[in-house]
Automatic annotation (TrEMBL):
GO terms for biological process: GMP salvage; guanine salvage; hypoxanthine metabolic process; IMP salvage; purine ribonucleoside salvage. This is Hypoxanthine phosphoribosyltransferase. SUPFAM superfamilies: PRTase-like (SSF53271). Residues 22-163 form the Phosphoribosyltransferase domain. The keyword Coiled coil does not apply. GO terms for cellular component: cytosol.
Length: 182
């Protein structure tokens, strides 16, 4: 029998409808806070792509857009939390108001590093928006102003989030069946 992605999902944690609702609420807040300020939205590849696409279309204000791709060095063992930049920005951040867009914040290491990097490059302000937040996993003290939904410490996939580069195209956030890991 044909194997479908859905066969590997134990439970739907955040439905398509709930994702849409969280996204709209975040977009409304960002629209209100950033109108007239032309923020630079920076999407962190690859996981943030579906969320970024939906979020920016729900923000009827002037924005600009760029992307970064980063990879962690085994973050928790590094006190500086350094991450490797695989793709850097095309745009200068000097004096820009930045909104970093993420699908999920887990340890907080990626955003801790990126926020400090962009401030050191002369950004005027840097705020973080994430669809999902896993507070139980946090090892970095970072302020995340815009959070869609806080979730328990499950490994989740879908809507951009992957396991071994699979499941990113599921339209909802799901918990994987344990046997998929083993
Ligand atoms: O808070 P942290 O512990 O730093 O984890 C969060 C990071 O991990 C995920 O990316 P991942 O490295 O899996 O890359 P991907 O988006 O390409 O899947 C996610 O998109 C964040 O960038
Ligand atoms: O729960 C997760 N799923 C997929 N990628 C992730 N990166 C951090 N947390 C997760």
């Amino acid at each position: 029998m044909k194997h479908e992605l859905e066969d590997d999902i134990l439970d739907v944690l955040v439905s398509k409808e709930e994702i849409q609702q969280c996204t709209q609420e975040l977009a409304d807040r960002l629209t209100e806070d950033y109108k007239g300020r032309r923020p630079l939205l920076i999407g962190i590849l690859k996981g943030a792509c579906p969320f970024l696409c939906d979020l920016m279309q729900a923000m009827p204000i002037d924005i600009s857009l760029d992307f970064m791709s980063v990879s962690s060095y085994g973050a928790s063992s590094s006190s500086t939390g350094e991450v490797r930049i695989l793709k850097d920005l095309d745009t200068s951040v000097q004096d820009r108001e930045i909104i970093i867009v993420e699908d999920i914040i887990d340890s907080g290491n990626t955003l801790f590093y990126l926020k400090n990097l962009l401030l050191s490059r002369g950004a005027k302000s840097v705020e973080l928006v994430t669809l999902l937040n896993k507070p139980d996993r946090r090892t970095r003290d970072i302020e995340v102003k815009y959070i869609g939904k806080s979730i328990p410490d499950h490994f989740v996939v879908g809507y951009g989030l992957d396991f071994n580069e699979t499941y990113r195209n599921l339209p909802y956030i799901g918990i994987l069946k344990p046997e998929v890991y083993s």
